[in-house]
Amino acid sequence: MRGGLRRKFVLGLLTVGLAAVAQSQTPTLTVDATGSPHPINPDIYGIANYGLDATFAKEIQVPAIRWGGDGTTRYNWEVDSSNAGFDWYFMGGNGQTTPVPSASADLMINTYKTASNAHTLLTIPIIPYVNKSAAWSCSFPVQVYGAQQSTNPYVFPAGDTCGNSIAGTGNPDYANGAQISDTNIYANHIDNTVALQQGWIEHLIATFGTAASGGVPYYQLDNEPGGWSNTHRDVEPVQPEYSTIISLGQQYAAMIKATDPTAKVFGPVDFTEGGWIGTPSQQNNLFAGQYYLQQMAAYDAAHHQRILDYFDEHYYGDGTDDASELNSTRNLWDPTYYNANNWVDKWWFHGPLMVIPTFQNWVTTYYPGTKVSISEYSFSLGTNPLVDALTEADVLGIFGRQGLDFASMWNTPKPTDPVAFSFRLYRNFDGAGGQFGNTAVNSTSTDQGSLSVYGAVRSTDGALTVIAINKTTSAISTSLALSHFTPAATASVYTYSNANLTQIVAGTPVAVSANAVNYNFPAYSATVFVFPSVAAPATMTSPTQGSKLPGATATFSWTKGDGATQYLLYVGTSVRSDNLDLVHAGTATSATVTNLPTVGAPVYVTLFSLLNGVWVPQSYTYTEAGSPQPATMVSPAPGTKLSSGSATFTWTGGTGATQYLLYVGTTVRSDNLDLIHAGAATSATVTNLPSVGATIYVTLFSLVNNAWVAEAYTYTEAGAPSAATMSSPTPGTTLPGASATFTWTGGTGATQYMLYVGSTSGNDNIDLVKTGTATSATVTNLPTNGKPVYVKLWSLVNNVWVGTVYTYTAAGS
């Protein structure tokens, strides 16, 4: 069952090439090592987390993991469960009696952080309803809604049989095949709110840190909202207009940014083709994706805040056999590839789909600066595993060449599946961590539909890596020419083909002659070439890597390298950043950087060498002079008594602290009275504080070097606590009989009460009553001998039991 609604609307599969259906000439390959270089974002090699083997994730160092799909739309983190919607009989819950909040999400994040430090893309529900309970439930029990066309054969909540919402034969209220309406949504759901989802993000921050400090970096706004009325028809039977989806997205996105300003937001996360279009007449005559970008840009202009970082959609290929599956990848980019019988291509796009360039053009037109993501995709038919693998390898090459920013494959492969080797081709082709390059360069095939090619320079060693994919059933013998690159005499070769589906086979190194190799590419194969560079980048000699800088000024010196012609220095507060300085050193082998901070934080220095026309980086880390200090509370003076129910807390800025957070509570490190994200401000006012003289605990957090550092302070509330006092029976009077009801005031600051009743002062030999928060209690079996009865009323005031003794006379004589 796919996590996304796949609406392909394909009426036929007559696919035509606008240039030519086939070429008779043998294709040739060319890679220009300096042609249009651009970085490949490793996040394009992402995979959905469902069932992903952690050992395989570690092997390929999977860079991104997605918690998404239909099953996350109604996820309620507080009960760690969701509702499957139409995908599986509208089943809700997970059968647990004592669910742990966010347990499954936390486990997923932990698993892949441990395996590969993977970036998590987490779905935040924005649909109006989420699941209510961890106990099993379903929206359309047959016992309530009558016969249905299909029922869950495995799980029967409270004895109910769960249907698929489509009326079956004999249904007393609906015709056979009719859609049943859920008449009691709140039986299994609660309202989704911004506050509920904010609580989840606060939990994730408390558990894993902010995005900047290694926590969850990416959040996406629900899953395929354009299909809610299909998949989630029980709670959203009428499809919302896209303006509603956008409004909900803006509310939740703004909350995400307020809760973790360092996190990135993805939207609208809609389904293939139809979900990108929506209803243009309701969308300023724009496609849904265009309208979404336009309105997010309008929000940015009105509020001076970007709340959308990635324009994110889903895409599924439309192949029906081996040849069309391999060819379908051209929908991602090719201006000559046109499926004339796909109604979306024909009537809406009026020509080739070109998914990635189309999305990039929408961004440029409607909201520049937004990145592009395809967070759910699949091209695999599942009929020919090798073809599935070659198609996926082609897709990954296209993602890198076209400059996509994020991608996540939906169909999670087992480590032994051929598709798993598609990822190994780019992430571990030699079994020893060998990776495809991270800077894409111009790579050309004279027939990309038959023999596709992708090239990239690898920054770690300057090598040029090339992947060529033979999509035909015959071997192709041809040449691969290199330009603007000086390779070594031989290149390593690795091949995945039908000859061995269990590994990528290392072949005999091939000779490089006149900057070219001749090679026989096996039928249905993917081949990796690694061309070592005879050049070597410069290396830093001073200051020593990892050392502490001497002060606000430092001189960096480096070797010339081998074949390097120019140098560039980035100095910043994060990896590969230049926010502190960017030095164009030219041919010089040293540079002095001034105005460095001196708060003991890490400094990241990247030394770039220009080799064969490509900038090759080497990264170094240092520690600033000085030492960081968290903020300290200035006012009110710690330990003092607050003057009223409102207090303004003021603190120093600390040294190196960039943000502040205030917890105010009645116990150490608690925030039950208030939690304030102060941002860069150094004061905050807290209102509605209790005024009963109790202890208040204030924790001031400072974000120092991307880590939250806590300082704890204690205050006394305004006012004074007082114990409860007995009001009835009047102290000193005679009790009415063997039973009496004692009533008392609540006191000030008292939270619990207890009664001792005894024949001597302070004794409880007659009765001991723990009343909790109640302010009265009935005591039976009182003596009726006319003797004294002593009642001690205990009050729990500021966590201390305070007792007052009252004397009565027993009834009788």
Question: If you had to describe this structure to a student in words, what would you say it looks like?
Answer:
The chain is of the alpha+beta class and 813 residues long. 16% of the residues lie in helices and 32% in strands. Strands 2, 3, 17, 18, 19, 20, 21, 22, 23, 24 and 25 form an 11-stranded mixed β-sheet that branches. An 8-stranded parallel beta barrel has the order 4-5-7-11-12-13-15-16, surrounded by 4 helices. Strands 29-28-31-32 form a 4-stranded antiparallel β-sheet, with no helix packed on it. It is globular. It starts with 14 loop residues before the first strand and ends with a strand.
Tally of helical runs: 13
Note the gap between the termini: 83 Å
Task: Give the overall shape, derived from the CA principal axes.
Answer: globular
Given as residue ranges, the uncertain stretches (5+ residues, pLDDT < 50) are 1-23
**Helix/strand/pairing category:** alpha+beta
Helical amount among residues, as a percent range? Answer: 10-25%
